[in-house]
Amino acid sequence: MSESESVRRTETIPQWKREEVDELVDFIDSYASVGIVGVAGIPSRQLQNMRRELHGSAAVRMSRNTLVQRALEEVGEGHEQLSEFVSAQVALIGTNDNPFGLYQQLEASKTPAPINAGEIAPNDIVIPEGDTGVDPGPFVGELQQVGAEARIMDGSIQVTADSTVLEAGEEVSTELANVLVELGIEPKEVGLDLRSVYSEGVLFAPEELAIDVDEYRDDIASAAAAGRNLSVNAEYPTARTAGTLLAKAAGQAKALGVFAAIEDPDVLPDLVAKADGQVRSIAARIDDDEALPEELRGVDAPATGAEESSDEDETADEADGDGDPDADADTDADDDPDDDDDGGDAGEGLGAMFG
Asked: 335 with 278: CB under 8 angstroms?
């Protein structure tokens, strides 16, 4: 279109249309997120109820499609991309909330509604098994005609099995529509159907906004935990990991002190407990009670060889800095009595005891 043709078109537009476009432009400029919603098939009363429910969080503005498209083009800045979704019965929707929240709100506001003859089924239509509550009569034949397994039982018409009477994408017949109304089955949802939203320079499709909030929250929590673990394992201090790193370092230092038998006041209780465990382990292997002092006669070994070996490995790992940062260097994480070095220490302890 040439510039002169554009000027002539602008000049010939009726005043009321110009004013309407200006109002639509103001509406679009007033919100951080603007979208197009389908309103086809929504009764006027339900539409008014939906508007009231959205009050305070979003606003709906209806107008002629041509005027909506003109307003979108005048605002520009990416909003003109919404023009391709302006067809059939639609309206503008504006919100200052994020588009994900808007989508969730619109989906939650949808309500069940009966389906009319000639409409396309949005999903499979199933007549469930059970008592219809309808007295015996011609209705049983109507049920059977639309494909439901039904018969008269116990003085009423009953559906004997869940019956799929129409598959998604197929057209609803007059007979089926009447049967569904009689049974009170409302197989479709009525509500504002979000087609697209433009927000902060991004055009969102409905499927991009349909996220599982709980799953998304779990993913974020998992990512945060993984980041924290990475920070701890890489020994990269932050405000959230400094305490853990200090606790880990303290635990490793204590484990090293016990492993190396360093006589430090903070380590001595663990060294004594470790020595006591080693002595008891050896004493439990001596069959001659006369060779042992009275307090060591009949003692049991503090742990099996496999458990001691496992605990010794854990203590050694802590000394190397690879253990659990929250683990304590306890006497249970002791040494295998068959270990040469520890066995020697225990032997010296017994020698001193027996003179």
From this structure: yes
One-letter amino acid at 118 equals G
∠ Cα 218 219 220 (to 5°)? 90
Query: Residues 65-83, buried b or exposed e (16+ Cβ, 10 A)?
Result: eebbbbbbeebeeebeebb
Q: What is the distance between the alpha carbons of residues 21 and 42, in angstroms, rounded to a whole number?
A: 25
111-113 and 188-190 beta bridge pairing? antiparallel
Beta carbons of 242 and 261 less than 8 angstroms apart: no
Residue 189 and residue 198 in contact, taking contact as beta carbons nearer than 8 Å = no
pLDDT, mean of each 10-residue run, the chain (355 residues) = 48 84 95 94 83 90 95 93 94 94 89 89 93 93 94 93 94 95 90 94 93 87 92 88 90 87 85 84 78 72 48 42 42 42 42 39
